[in-house]
Amino acid sequence: MTASLFIKAAWAFLRGLPWQLYAILALVLITAALRWHWIGVGADGVQARWDAQEAVYAEQRAAATIAARNTEARHRAEYKAIADRFLAEQDKADADHKATIAGLRAGSLRVRQRFTCPRMSQGPADTGSPDGAGPRGFTSDDAAMALGIAQRADDYARRLNALQDAVRAR
User: Fold this and answer.
1) Long-range pairs for 156-161 at CB < 8 Å and ≥24 separation?
2) How many angstroms separate the CA atoms of 137 and 110, rounded?
3) Rounded to an integer, what distance in angstroms lies between the CA atom of residue 168 and that of residue 166?
4) What is the DSSP letter of 118?
5) Running DSSP on this structure, what letter comes out for residue 93?
6) Computed over its alpha carbons, how large is the radius of gyration of the chain?
7) CA distance 159 to 36
8) Region of residue 86 (left: phi > 0; alpha: psi -120 to 50; beta: else)
9) What does residue 137 show for φ and ψ, rounded to 5 degrees?
10) CA–CA distance, 49 with 63 (Å, rounded to integer)
């Protein structure tokens, strides 16, 4: 019975309030419900736009990754071609050098005569050789030394050309 008395008293109190208060209360409740609904819809819209943008970014990342891998593969192929060409030239130069040295030592190859200075006397003894009657060309050891120096210079030139090719390939 106390509950029913309480409800009757509360109902009598609420009936005594002006209708404007009920209108304000209804407006506040409707505004809160709409705001709650639009915040939810807004969050869903923001999430949908976010997901769409993330999908675009994922496609762009995938395309950039594929492009980078293709570029790396092309660079690897170019550098491999440069290295193969360099090694082939190096092997050929080494074989040519060994064949030249062997030919000099066997006597099948000769280098040209030493330069003579026209102002020098043509006496019987030369300061560089023990007797004046001997041949005036390089000895095979001198020629081998000169060809070794030339081979090293050619090797540096081949290395420089390979480096220049690598720089141009970039």
Assistant:
1) 158/86, 158/89, 158/90, 158/93, 159/86, 161/86
2) 8
3) 5
4) T
5) H
6) 49
7) 74
8) alpha
9) -95, 180
10) 21
**Sole residue written with tokens 């030919």:** 103
Q: How far apart are CA 133 and CA 123, in angstroms?
A: 10
Cβ atoms 87, 149 nearer than 8 A: no
* Tokens 């030592």, located at residue: 105
Give Cα 25 distance to the centre of its chain: 68
Q: Residues for the chain: how many in total? A: 170
Question: What is the rounded distance in angstroms from the CA atom of residue 162 to the CA atom of residue 42?
Answer: 62
Q: What is the distance between the alpha carbons of residues 145 and 137, in angstroms, rounded to a whole number?
A: 14
**For residues 117 and 126, what is the distance between their CA atoms, to the nearest angstrom?**
12
Q: pLDDT of the chain along its 170 residues, tens only?
A: 578 888 888 888 878 888 888 888 899 999 888 887 777 677 777 788 899 999 999 999 999 999 999 999 999 999 999 999 999 999 999 999 899 888 888 888 777 666 554 554 555 555 554 544 445 556 777 778 888 898 899 999 999 998 898 888 87
